[in-house]
Amino acid sequence: MASAFARTQNGRVASSRAAQPCRAPLRVRAVATTAKKDSSSAAASKAKLTPEVAKDLYYDMLLGREFEEMCAQMYYRGKMFGFVHLYSGQEAVSSGIIRALRPDDYVCSTYRDHVHALSKGVPAREVMAELFGKKTGCCRGQGGSMHMFSAKHGVLGGYAFIGEGIPIGVGAAFKSAYKRRVLGDESSDSVTCSFFGDGTCNVGQFYESLNMAALYKLPHIFVVENNLWAIGMSHMRSTSHTLGDADFPYIYKKGPAFGMPGVRVDGMDVMKVREVALEAIERARRGDGPTLIEAETYRFRGHSLADPDELRSKEEKAAYAARDPIPQLKRVMLEQGLATEDDIKAIHDRVAAEVEDSVKFADESPKPEKGQLLENVFADPRGFGIAADGRYRYELPGFTSGTAAVS
Amino acid sequence: MLARFVCPATTGCLGLAAQAAARQVGQWSRAYAAAATTELTVRDALNSALDEEMARDEKVYILGEEVGEYQGAYKITRGLLQKHGAERVRDTPITEAGFTGIAVGSAFAGTKPVCEFMTFNFAMQAIDQIVNSAAKTLYMSAGQISCPIVFRGPNGAAAGVGAQHSQCFAAWYSHVPGLKVLAPYDSEDARGLLKAAIRDPDPVIFLENELLYGTAFPVSQEVLDKDFTLPIGKAKVMRQGKDVTIVAFSKMVGFSLEAAEQLAKEGIDAEVINLRSIKPLDRATIAASVRKTHRLVSVEEGWPQSGIGAEIAALAMEECFDDLDAPMGRVAGAEVPTPYAANLEAMCFPQVPDIVRQVKATVGRA
Known about the structure:
heterodimer, A: about 400 residues, alpha/beta, Rossmann fold, five-stranded parallel beta sheet, two-stranded antiparallel sheet, 13 helices, 9 strands, B: about 375 residues, 2 domains, seven-stranded mixed beta sheet, five-stranded mixed beta sheet, 14 strands, globular, EC 1.2.4.1 (chain B), metal-binding (chain B), mitochondrion (chain B)
């Protein structure tokens, strides 16, 4: 099995030693892990696909794909509106990483967050209803496409400002470490994954987060979904090359600069992504700190449904379409006997039914009532202040529809 | 922080204000004991509030630049590192957006951070996290994910610190739904409001004033109680009066009390309201006062356009129109970035004579 831990194009382990005079030898490895022999083989054996895991991954990727394609249809029919950013093509990253997490782990994302929410377990119905702006949505219609939150499933958003979510994710990891180091809960080892794109890697908050996650040794995984494009800005035009690499502006190499392993992985291959994820998750749970994963991937659609997508070449799109993660996994499953054609058809039927059901549910769900407008601005509704007659405003009749909490 | 104040009258003002406050004890609400026994500086009030709240709830922690080993850039967190340890009093790198985001994310996950900004000017580097994450997430998540965080630090002018260190941010933050904005004046305010802010489940912007840190105010035993809190959203009438209502917050409360003393000598009896809470604004108390006095002057250190005084003016129009015998008067800072030269700086921020002059104009006397 080819090493999932990428080396540079010419096979050398990444090192900037030759380029700079140093007092001490500078050892920069593409991947550094303190894993002992047995724990790395434990990770490797966990990475071996069982039929259950393979089918779960296939189901999850297919759900993501069908869901997003349905979103496109619904958008053009006017059922959803505003800014919608679809994930089609990148499913291997979401499924490969998030399906390896526990329910008490956290995920933090950007505006391209529908599939991250689905992979983490938020029901398709709730995501679709949220996109339709209905009160049965996971955020009761108040968040929308770019702001998927679920306390129950550990989805911390959904941020329109790229880079904003990364420190938030590091903060959730901070809490996990705090719980162990200060509150004395030895069992606290939940992990947080922050997902973001190549464009985000030029935002200051990315670097601030890399620094602190490593400095405080936090159980956090930085996942760069490098799909080569930030709207119409090519990664090649916007990001400087690391020293000594003329071919490509690698992002994973920025990890070691901050003291954490950097890994580049084929993000169109869910099995490779999963293997890398398991190692990073294990590392984080052990208390060894963060990892930076750069997943090479591609979005089959434009940046958003409003993007004419004129700048990407047909050849590039075709090349990545040929590497579509879903048929790839199907081939492997059939070859390795992990699933039969019937199993796979059953998964397709199940996903189709689930997506149809989610649309029906969203369509039939009611819109939020007017009274919902003023709810949840504050956890303590006394924050709305005092009315003229001396009562708290939220106490006045008609102020809310009655579900605001009284503390 | 600085050895000298720009305006020598300032220290005198504050000292006199404190004495004036003590003399006014009898006219204040019964919450105060007639004999205010202890003198407590604002710094010690904040320090003791932080210490007690950290002892009370393990989930409370402090992060920011120089809060630990340096004992706090303005010594507000003095001694806390030694008492509560490095995991709970965390020195951060110079990385405002990053550490604010981490604090907000950890609050989402269940801790209760107190995030210190060395001054609120530096919070501009983190304002995305304050406004877009902390303030809005409870709403965007429809109540699922709350943010029990306090952002605190010095706000407004200091002395001779120049344009980039002197801005008042009360108007900016009070504009945003989802934030609560507090501005303590004296030590009772500092203790009570900070403890309330830390216990509050929402994000609170806590605007301190650097020049007040060293000022001692008399406090009653009740204020020193470890469960002493003040309600968020209630202003305090510092001085009862019948001729005009002066509304102020933070340092300007002291100046307004001093101005009231001077005005009293000329037969003008001013009521001074200490807002304490910029958001939610205690409109009821202001309106009730104007109903009594029929004249209104607001005092703020910040710039006039779209400032707190502008909001008070809207309130005056909307709720006090029929009670007013004269248009509202507004005293605010000069509309310039703060200059460095001491004499120019003194012209930039309201002084006691400016307040006296405006009140006289509003009351109709030259």
